Terminase large subunit gp17-like C-terminal domain-containing protein (marine sediment metagenome), 394 residues
Amino acid sequence: QKIYKGVRQSWTKDQITVKRDISQTDPTLMCFSSQSKGATGAHFDGIVFDDVWSRIMDRNPENKDKWLEWFDGELEGCLEDAWEFWIYTRKSPIDLYQTMEDRHYYVIITKPGILKYPSKYHYAYKEVGGNKVFDRVVVESNDWIISDPSRFTVEFFLEKKLKMNPSEYESEFQLNPMARVGRYWKWSDLRFTRGYEEFLNMIKEKPKRRKSRIIGSMDIAIGTSARADYTALCIIGFFENKYYFLELFLKRGANETEMVKMMAEAKRTFNDMETIYIEADFQQSVYVERLKARASFIHILPVLARQEQRMLEKATSDRKMINLNGKPLRIWASLEPKIEANVLYINQYMRNFEEFKTEFKTFPKCEHYDVLDALSSGMFKMEKKGALIFAFSG
């Protein structure tokens, strides 16, 4: 037992586990308990925040001191009954670790629970009331290595491995949050092109009777703070029943003027672009009308997410096991068939390619859905129009 003095409340745990998760989180401080969905006043199993302190607080020394006062005082009391403490952040974990170590109150554990699995072990079962139930873990070899044998046993981790979902086990006990993401798509399933000129040249080389189409699809983010979502404008081409993600314009917290400039640049680059579809709810539809008045050089149409959701319900009704809801389900239902059919091509030389890559690889736990949301909405509209194009073009 180790008691720390000089703080408001002493605590007896000298080791905690600090974990990083890339889930989208509210930037405001939020505490929660694994025992209940609501916050608890006794102790917390996790704390979620954007960073050690926000940029706004960074500009105010008084706020920073106030945060550290909570950090050094209340946090110790919260840890008294907690065998493990998790912290999730969207920022670099180095900042978080260094700040905690600088306080001289913590030992940071950054290694996974099991460093080396035993070469021989098995699970023993017993019969209870005619049913086969788990009894214990039997480790037959002595070649295992765990990071903290003073607190845990190898049997503890192996039992958790048996009872938990594999991805959850990897995230919770092996410090591998990436195991929880990227389960819906594989990067290797995508097809790529080298620039949008390849798409434009391909159109010129084909007979005139083969129709093509280029549209823009925009997901707007209203807000100018440093933590605002991105305004994403995806340029999508359609030709020979294939979809081409040609270009990506991206701006965090863009205002109306910046959105108009974004659309104007897209129109100059892709002169054949007919329409820009903007996803909007009923409140944002008013905002879209203002953009239409300012961007008369391009045809702008709103796309109601609620209408798109109803259209996709039928397509996903036979896939009840998909563990998604809301916006991630819409995105998945729109993109998954195209990826499976190998008809989605991505321009690997587009601007902001890394942002798309990050969202795709970490879906559905990505920080933002902005690019994927705009892309899926545009492809949804293109799919409906594409049926008419090929009906007339043969």
Remarks:
- The chain is about 35% helix and 20% strand.
- The chain has three domains: 16-109, 114-180, 187-393.
